[in-house]
Amino acid sequence: MNKIALLLSAIFLISSILLGQTAQTFTFTIEGMTCNSCANTATKVLQDLKGVESATVDYESKTATLSGKVTQDGIRAVLTTNTNFEALFEGESLVKALTDKERSAYDIKTIKGGHKMKFMEHLSSGKITVFDFYAEWCGPCRVFSPKVERMLLKYDNVALRKVDIVDWKSPLSKQLTKAYKFPALPFTLIFDAGGKLLGKVKGNNIEMVEDIINRQ
């Protein structure tokens, strides 16, 4: 069988699978929402997902119900990518932050006040330093930040600086916007030991943070 025939066979097989996929109903929780408008945003994002027939999100219970020819992975990905919220299905739970005792064993420091920063002053000698920018009022940050803390359990060459921006008008927020086109929270900057910027990550995307670290 030549390559064209193989390709056509593969396309036919995939199409058959997609056409044969039956609609399912999913009920799951959405973490990271802090207001009714967040639920409205999540609803629209889910309704726009290809294959979805209906989707509703209740803010009070943080519960979503969705019907359509989709998968859990597809639901999870579209929410994380477009809202920074996190879908949790039955049996799943949020990543928990390190305890104070666990945190004391790692190079983790918290910087508060929302003041302008000189990043060189906060780098860890001989290590990659991850700056996790957050705010107390940021729902997605409460989902993402524990993942960053737990990430340190896998890397002995990484330090963490948890930085509170306070609000969008703080000197730090203005500095980040000017220097790094600060888009939204969560926001992460990764520097090497010499102060070179290795990468920046916007949103609830721990996989991208680890990818930048692993490339070094």
Structure report:
With 216 residues, this protein is α+β, with helices and mostly antiparallel strands. The chain folds into 2 domains: 3-88, Alpha-Beta Plaits; 100-214, Glutaredoxin (3-Layer(aba) Sandwich), CATH 3.40.30. The protein contains 7 helices and 9 strands. The chain has helices at residues 3-20, 36-47, 72-83, 100-103, 139-151, 171-180, 206-214, and strands at residues 24-31, 52-58, 63-68, 86-88, 108-111, 128-134, 158-164, 187-191, 197-202. The strands form 2 sheets. Strands 5-7-6-8-9 form a 5-stranded mixed β-sheet, covered by helices on one side. It has a 4-stranded antiparallel β-sheet with strand order 2-3-1-4. The protein is elongated and about 55 Å long. The mean pLDDT is 92.
Output the keywords.
single chain; 216 residues; alpha+beta; Alpha-Beta Plaits; Glutaredoxin; 2 domains; 5-stranded mixed β-sheet; 4-stranded antiparallel β-sheet; 7 helices; 25% strand; elongated
- The portion of residues forming beta strands comes to 15-25%
Q: Please tally the helical runs, counting DSSP H or I stretches of 4 or more residues.
A: 7
What is the CA-CA span between the terminal residues? 43 Å
Summarize the amount of helix as a percent range. Answer: 25-40%
Strand order of the largest sheet: 5-7-6-8-9
Task: State the shape.
Answer: elongated
Q: Rounded to an integer, what's the Rg over CA atoms?
A: 21 Å
Mean pLDDT across all residues, rounded? Answer: 92
Q: Could you say which structural class the secondary elements and strand pairing correspond to? A: alpha+beta
Judging by the overall fold, what is the CATH architecture of the largest domain? 3-Layer(aba) Sandwich
Can you tell me the residue ranges where pLDDT is under 50 for at least 5 consecutive residues?
Answer: none
Strand segment count: 9
The CATH superfamily of the largest domain is Glutaredoxin
CATH topology of the largest domain: Glutaredoxin
Characterize the largest beta sheet: strand count, sense, and whether it forms a barrel. Answer: 5 strands, mixed
| N-to-C SSE string, H for helix and E for strand | HEHEEHEHEEHEHEEH
Tally of domains:
2
Q: What is the class of the largest domain in the CATH system? A: Alpha Beta
